[in-house]
Design goal:
The structure is a single chain. Strand 1 (56-59) and strand 2 (63-66) form a beta hairpin. The strands form four sheets. Strands 3, 5, 6, 7, 8, 9, 10, 11 and 12 form a nine-stranded mixed β-sheet that branches. By secondary structure, the protein is an alpha/beta fold. Helix content is 42%, strand content 14%. Among the domains are: 3-66, Winged helix-like DNA-binding domain superfamily/Winged helix DNA-binding domain (Arc Repressor Mutant, subunit A, Orthogonal Bundle), CATH 1.10.10; 136-360, Type I PLP-dependent aspartate aminotransferase-like (Major domain) (Aspartate Aminotransferase, domain 2, 3-Layer(aba) Sandwich). The structure holds pyridoxal-5'-phosphate. Pyridoxal-5'-phosphate binds next to helix 8. Pyridoxal-5'-phosphate (PLP) is lined by residues 113, 177-179, 203, 248, 253, 281, 283, 311, 313, 318, 323.
C-alpha cells in the first residue's frame, strides 16, 4: 500500500472510532506530517485522497474537517399511498411498553424524545425553585387555580412574541405539560366518534390519547421536508367531515421538518374555509438550530380558531410538567375542563419556571442547547449513514432532537425493536406512529444524547438492521 494510503487509512480509523467526529477539524498537514513522521507531500496526497472519498473536506483558511456521511432524506410520500378513510386506532401494549422503557436507567434511550439530563439546567432550576417557595411561602403551597400563575403567563406571552404571536397573559392557561394541553383541546372540540385530521406519522402518544377519546383519525401524508401535504389535505377534506386538525408544524415529532410561513398560512386558510379548528403543538419551537425562531400558525389567527399548545419539557425540565395552552375561543370550556380534571397545575414548578424566564438566562440556555442538539443530530445521522444497510435514509431536522430513519422495506421495525432491547437499546418503531403499515420499516431515534455508548448503540442497531435486511 502506498504510504499516503496508510496515512489516509489511519485517519479513517480515527474517524470511525469517533476520535474525530463529523464537523470536527483534523490535524493540519504540517502537524500530521510531524506526528506520523512522513513528508508534508505525503499528507497532502493522503488528504486529497480522503477529500475525493468525502471523508474530509477543506474549508478555506481554516483547515480540513470531517464530513458528515448523511444518507439521502426519506422519500416523499406518494399521495395515493395514504388511506383516505377515517381509521380507529388500536390499543397498543407496545406503546405502553416503550413508554415504560423510558424509566429504565440502564437502557440506551433512543426510544423517547427526552432531553439529555446533563443539558437540563438542574442547579439553576433548584435554586430558583427554593428561592421562589421562600419568597412566596403561602402562594407556593396553594392551588394556582386556572388559568395559573400570572407571572408565568406573562413571561410566556413575552416569549411568544418571538414567534410573531401577540398573546395577552389572560389568554393562556397553564397545564401539566403539552400532553394535557393537547388532551384538553381535543376534549373541548371533539366528541366520541368525531374525526380528527392529522399528519402521518404522528407522535405516538397522541394517537393513544385520540383513541382513548373515541376519535377516528384521517391520516394525511407528510413530506419529510415541507410538512403536511396540503393538496392531499384539501382532497381529504372534500371527501370527509372532519371536526378538528392536530398539527406539529415546527420541528415536527417525528419528522423534524419546519413548515414555512406560506404553508402555515395556506393550512390555516384551508381550515378556515372548512370551519375546522386547529390544534397546534409548538413544543419544539424554541429548539431551532438556526438563529431564527419559527412562527406559529396562531400568529395569523384573528378569530380564536387556533389552539396553541406547548411546554418547557424539551427546553427546561420534562419532570416539572409545566405546559400551557392558548385556547382561543375555547378558553372557557378548556378552563372548565382543566378544573374538573385536576383542579390546577402544581404551583412550585410554575413559580420556578417563571423565575427562570425572568432572570435565569433562558435565551442563553436555549442558544447553548440548540447548538449542541444541532451537532448531535448530524453525528447521529452520520452514524446511521455509516452503519445501517445501504438504501437507509434519514431526515434533516432543522431543530429539536428527533431523527427519523427509513430503512429498506424488508426491515421490520418491531423485530428490530425487540432485538435492540436485548442489547439494552430502545428505539421507537415506525409502526406506532400510524394506524397504517406505511412506516413499519422506519424508526425514530432520540438524538439528544451523544457519547461513546450511543455511538456503540447506533453501530449495534445498524448491525441488527443489516442482518434483518439480508435475511428475507
Ligand atoms: C410533539 C410533542 N408534543 C407533546 C409532548 C409531550 O410533552 P409534555 O412532556 O410537555 O407533556 C411531546 C413529548 O415528547 C412531544 O414530542
Amino acid at each position: 500500500m502506498p504510504l499516503y494510503e496508510t496515512v489516509a487509512s489511519k485517519i479513517v480509523d480515527l474517524v470511525e472510532k469517533g476520535t474525530f467526529n463529523p464537523g470536527e477539524r483534523v490535524p493540519s498537514i504540517r502537524r500530521l506530517s510531524q506526528q506520523f513522521k512522513v513528508s508534508v507531500n505525503t499528507v497532502k496526497t493522503a488528504y486529497a485522497f480522503l477529500e475525493d472519498r468525502r471523508v474530509i473536506q477543506a474549508r478555506p483558511q481554516s483547515g480540513y474537517y470531517v464530513c458528515p456521511r448523511l444518507p439521502e432524506p426519506p422519500r416523499e410520500p406518494e399521495i395515493t399511498t395514504p388511506e383516505f378513510d377515517p381509521a380507529i386506532i388500536n390499543s397498543s401494549d407496545l406503546v405502553l411498553r416503550i413508554m415504560g422503557d423510558v424509566m429504565a436507567p440502564d437502557l440506551v434511550q433512543f426510544g423517547a424524545a427526552i432531553p439529555d439530563p446533563s443539558l437540563v439546567p438542574t442547579r439553576k432550576l433548584n435554586r430558583m425553585l427554593s428561592s421562589a417557595v421562600r419568597r412566596f411561602p403561602q402562594e407556593s403551597t396553594a392551588y394556582a387555580m386556572p388559568p395559573g400563575n400570572i407571572r408565568l403567563r406573562t413571561q410566556i406571552a413575552k416569549q411568544m412574541m418571538k414567534a410573531g404571536c401577540t398573546l395577552h397573559p389572560d389568554e393562556i392557561i397553564i397545564t401539566n405539560g403539552a400532553s394535557e394541553a393537547v388532551f384538553l383541546a381535543l376534549r373541548a372540540i371533539c366528541k366520541p366518534g368525531d374525526t380528527l385530521v392529522i399528519g402521518a406519522p404522528l407522535y405516538f402518544t397522541f394517537l393513544q390519547v385520540i383513541r382513548d377519546l373515541g376519535l377516528k383519525v384521517l391520516e394525511i401524508p407528510m413530506s419529510p421536508t415541507h410538512g403536511i401535504n396540503l393538496e392531499a389535505l384539501e382532497s381529504a377534506l372534500d371527501q370527509h367531515r372532519v371536526q378538528a386538525c392536530l398539527i406539529i408544524p415546527n420541528f415536527n415529532n417525528p419528522l423534524g421538518f419546519c413548515m414555512d410561513d406560506d404553508r402555515k398560512k395556506r393550512l390555516l386558510g384551508l381550515m378556515k374555509r372548512h370551519d375546522i379548528p386547529v390544534i397546534e403543538d409548538d413544543i419544539n419551537g424554541d429548539l431551532s438550530f438556526s438563529d431564527t425562531r419559527p412562527s406559529v400558525i396562531k400568529s395569523w389567527d384573528n378569530d380564536g380558531d387556533v389552539i396553541l399548545c406547548s411546554s418547557f419539557s424539551k427546553t427546561l425540565a420534562p419532570g416539572y410538567r409545566v405546559g400551557w395552552i392558548a385556547p382561543g375561543r375555547y378558553f372557557d370550556s378548556i378552563r372548565h375542563q382543566k378544573l374538573i380534571i385536576n383542579i390546577a397545575t402544581p404551583t412550585p414548578t410554575q413559580l420556578a419556571v417563571a423565575e427562570f424566564l425572568v432572570s435565569g438566562g433562558y435565551e442563553h440556555h436555549l442558544r447553548s442547547i440548540r447548538k449542541i442538539y444541532g451537532k448531535r443530530i448530524v453525528q447521529m445521522a452520520d452514524g446511521v449513514g455509516r452503519h445501517f444497510p445501504s438504501g437507509t435514509r434519514v431526515t434533516r431536522p432543522e431543530g429539536g432532537f428527533a431523527l427519523w430513519v427509513e430503512m429498506p422495506e424488508n426491515v421490520d421495525s418491531i423485530t428490530l425493536y425487540s432485538l435492540a432491547l436485548k442489547k439494552g437499546i430502545t428505539v421507537a418503531p415506525g409502526k406506532i406512529f400510524s394506524t397504517t403499515d406505511h412506516f413499519n420499516h422506519c424508526i425514530r431515534l432520540n438524538a439528544a444524547f451523544w457519547s461513546d455508548k450511543t455511538r456503540w448503540a447506533v453501530k449495534t442497531l445498524g448491525k441488527i438492521a443489516c442482518r434483518l435486511s439480508n435475511t428475507r
